[in-house]
Amino acid sequence: MMTTTIDGHSLTASAVLAVARPDRTGARARAALGEEARAALTDTRAYIDAHFMHDDAPLMYSFNTGVGLFKDQRVRMDEMEAYQRLTVYAHATGIGEPFDAEAVRATMLLRANAFASNYSGPRVAVVDRLLDCLNAGIVPVIPQKGSVGASGDLAPLAYLAAAICGFDEAEAFHDGRRMPARAALEAAGLATDFPLEAKDASALINGSTVSLALGVIALEDMKRVLKHAEVALALTLECLRAEKAAFDPRVHRARPHKGQAATARNVLRLLGDSERCTPEARETLFPDEARAPGAAPPPRVQDVYSLRCAPQVHGPVREALAYIDGIIGTEINAATDNPLIVPEAAGERYVCISAGHFHGAYVAQAMDLLAITATDLGSISERRLARLIDPTLSYGLPRNLLAGKKGLNTGYATVQCSMSALVMENRTLSMPGSVDSIPGKSNAEDHVSNSTWCARKARTVVENVETIVAGEILMAAQALSLVESVAREHPLGAGTRAALEAVRAVIPPALSGDRWYHTEIAASVALVRSGAILEAVEAAVGPLE
To answer: Among 12, 388, 428, 524, which is least packed by CB within 10 angstroms?
Structure first.
């Protein structure tokens, strides 16, 4: 079994997903703390215990003081264990349905990695406890709502802390079953009680780590969705016997944005030697085309925007993902606690500095950008798939992509309707959340990031776009199957042919109306999610950009 070793400096998004998400065999990577990081954490905590942990030490926020507006109230050493416990209780104010296992597992790993950077000052035992619970398959029940993303994700992280510490009130999932956290710990063979010491509680609940976990998942999924959107685009171009001129590299040298040029190259790689996107193919009379047999089609000249301008729409998405990738990559290996323990004098001494790294504005704004650009990608995909069901817009494809008796059967019209519903939902969800701020805690937190909501809605948008793109692939595959016999003299490109075969291997063409379309949509989403289509395409034409 693969092991992901954390050190606070080198964790990658793909490694996070390897721990958070099962692979095709159902296995997940284990997580371990690197030995150098362990030694550094041990040394730092030894200094803290020797120099900070007495009642005459200077006031250090959350080490020996209350939190928020109680920052000037000393907590005595004989009260410390109770204070840690009460800190978790005070912040367990979440609302709503629990996060899924992927999000929680990613959160646990990312919080441990933040500690491994050696700026937070918890005991090494806290990191080990997080990783032990993670590796044992314990998934704390964490309500989705209640965080404003400053002082980090306090409310959701309090539930994580309560579960791994075995609080009576906490719950967790283990082996797919929801149960009291203590029962889950016992079933996993872990001690049911884990007392917290100075700084442990505030370290566990500080930082916008839930927001980050959601952001990592949404970003990595969107990278995959974008490549599939270009497969979908190429399939639709074949369906509509479209012009390839708009993807000519000479065109993209005239407006040299890297993103649009990469999309154009991907499309041409997919179409390759296609004879379907040619004037000769347009001479073939399609089933519902409104021209007499033998009559020449009107010159195409140029296609509609959803086809011709696809590089100019997909391209900004690609470049936005690159920007977001930089933000998320930095956050993965960042210390997002408060206060921070900073070394002085070559690491022989440490000081405690209060600052604001817990504030989630970076993640919030990046997730708003992700939601906006993903929404636009879904919107243009829906406009393309909508053309496929209307013969006046598809140059004669059967109406509604219908096979079988007209009227008795309806075809794919409502599939398009459902995809349009997702587009409209996305348009609402892509309204920025990072511009909103309501002060909290008697104005101790007078500007918040709203990062958790931004990340939650961005992830929903990405999931919706994944479905829309899968819908375009599904409908394009149906369209190409319906005209296969009449257009056989004009073969598809190698990339689109490979994509079509990958879809057909799982979803045979609908040659009658007796179809449960829900199953087809779910199957096409599963194909996109698994990467099976992309694997088939890249085996045929090489890697897409």
So the answer is: 428
Q: Are 370 and 457 in contact (CB under 8 A)?
A: no
Distance CA 7, CA 197 (A): 23
The three-state (H, E, C) secondary structure of 114-169, written as one string:
HHHCCCCCCCHHHHHHHHHHHHCCCEECCEEECCCCCCCCHHHHHHHHHHHHCCCC
Rounded-to-integer distance, Cα 226 and Cα 490, Å: 28
For residue range 214-225, list pLDDT tens digits in order. 999 999 999 999
Which H or E element spans position 250? helix 249-253
Instruction: Tell me which residue of 151, 181, 184, 248 sits closest to 452, measured CA to CA.
Output: 151
| Residue 441 amino acid letter | K
Q: What's the chain's Rg over C-alpha atoms? A: 27
Kindly write down the DSSP assignment for every residue of 427-486, as one continuous string.
HHHTS-STT----BTTTTB-S---HHHHHHHHHHHHHHHHHHHHHHHHHHHHHHHHTTTT
Has residue 263 got a pLDDT over 80?
Answer: yes
Rounded distance between C-alpha atoms, residue 384 and residue 232, angstroms:
9
Please write the tens of the pLDDT for every residue from 58-99.
888 778 887 777 888 898 888 888 899 999 999 999 999 999
Rounded (10°) angle between helices 154-165 and 101-116: 90
Angle between helix 80-91 and helix 154-165 axes, rounded to 10 deg: 130
Q: pTM score > 0.85 for this model?
A: yes
Catalytic pick among 47, 61, 89, 412: 61
Burial class (CB in 10 A: 0-12, 13-18, 19+), 232: buried
**485 burial type by CB count under 10 A (0-12 exposed, 13-18 middle, 19+ buried):** exposed
Residue 313 pLDDT > 70, yes or no? yes
Read off the pLDDT of each residue in 363-375 and give the average, rounded to a whole number: 98
Give residue 24's identity as a one-letter amino acid code. R
Answer yes or no: 305 catalytic.
Answer: no
From 234-248, 251-265, 441-455, the region with the lowest mean pLDDT: 441-455
